[in-house]
Design brief:
By secondary structure, this protein is of the alpha+beta class. It is about 40% helix and about 20% strand. A hairpin with an 8-residue loop joins strand 2 and strand 3. About 25% of the residues are buried. The structure holds dinuclear copper ion (CUA). Dinuclear copper ion binds near residues 151, 189 and 190.
């Protein structure tokens, strides 16, 4: 799990500050209640008396009422402090400048994240999956959608949690001010592989981000070596192409992650495995063993063909 109390952007930092205020107030109240309870127990008679003493002088009665009134007033005051802090946080977050924001459409599926980078020039839009790249210091506006059930996007170091609800698109904003890699595990139970649905966000300097985005926009390069063209052929004309897209080839399936640049990603199967030729081969040949319940069917291939396919996928940088 990521260290959720370490904010790397204005949204998370404000929310963490609010959380600290709430923790402090609730902690003080909790300790005060325990002290009052201990005092009451300490003063209680050790044994039940035969005749309950109704021994309340007017002065004692008045003292009791004053204590009750003071505690009620203190509780109300503290609740108002919490409300004010919450409203204050909302206002600060609403003022974060979103000028020049990058717009990204995030669609949650069981169990992976579809990412579509918008651009005013339609030819410059591109799709990828499970690995978000954003430029450091530039705000990002997301449109969130869900394809099947409710999921939840939560990058605790960058922003609060937001649900993705089928049929109800919402927006979400964040800004990463510190370069780095941030984990965003799905935060709403969404089925068998809820835990196997991790969004990785990589915040990098603008120049590095631009280079990455340019590479993502390019179609897959053609391959020369016989083993690689065999792999490509298997992909295009086997079952892979029914669900996956590789831009620049005949594979144009829309059901599963776009694999045009799959080799540039750090993980496969939505954060379940590191991206290596071995894990890729294991995933392709027996996905149900790696991620039980996922929609990926097993691809039964002779070892040579499996190697060719994995080698081809490895070229998709
Ligand atoms: Cu998607 Cu939990």
């Amino acid at each position: 799990m990521p260290d959720v109390l370490h904010g790397a952007g204005p949204h998370a930092s404000e929310i963490i500050a609010l959380w600290r205020v709430a923790l402090l107030i609730c902690g003080v109240v909790f300790v005060a209640v325990l002290i009052a309870l201990a005092a009451a127990l300490w003063r209680a008679p050790a044994e039940p008396r035969a005749v309950p003493a109704i021994d309340e002088s007017p002065a004692l009665r008045q003292r009791g009422w004053r204590i009750v009134a003071a505690s009620t007033a203190a509780s109300l005051l503290l609740l108002f402090v919490l409300i004010a802090a919450s409203v204050w946080t909302d206002r600060v977050l609403a003022r974060v400048d979103l000028h020049g924001a990058q717009h990204i459409e995030v669609t949650a599926h069981q169990w992976w994240w579809e990412l579509r980078y918008d651009d005013e020039d339609v030819a410059r839009t591109f799709s990828t999956a499970n690995e978000l790249h954003v430029p450091v210091g530039r705000p990002v506006v997301f449109t969130l959608r869900a394809d099947d059930v409710i999921h939840s996007l939560w990058l605790p170091n960058l922003a609060g949690k937001k649900d993705l609800v089928p049929g109800r698109p919402t927006t979400h904003v964040l800004r990463a001010d510190v370069a780095g890699e941030y984990r965003g595990p799905c935060a709403e139970f969404c089925g068998a592989q809820h835990a196997g649905m991790v969004l990785t966000l990589i915040a990098e300097p603008q120049q590095q981000y631009d280079a990455w985005a340019d590479a993502q926009r390019a179609a897959a390069s053609s391959v020369g070596a016989p083993q690689l063209s065999r792999g490509r052929d298997l992909f295009e004309h086997g079952s892979c192409a029914l669900c996956h897209t590789i831009a620049g080839t005949e594979a144009a399936g829309k059901m599963a992650p776009d694999l045009t640049h799959v080799a540039s990603r750090r993980t496969i199967a939505a954060g379940v495995l590191p991206n290596t030729p071995q894990t890729l081969a294991a995933w392709v040949s027996d996905p149900q063993r790696v991620k039980p319940g996922s929609n990926m069917p097993p691809v039964a291939l002779p070892p040579d063909d499996l190697q060719a396919l994995v080698a081809y996928l490895g070229t998709l940088r």
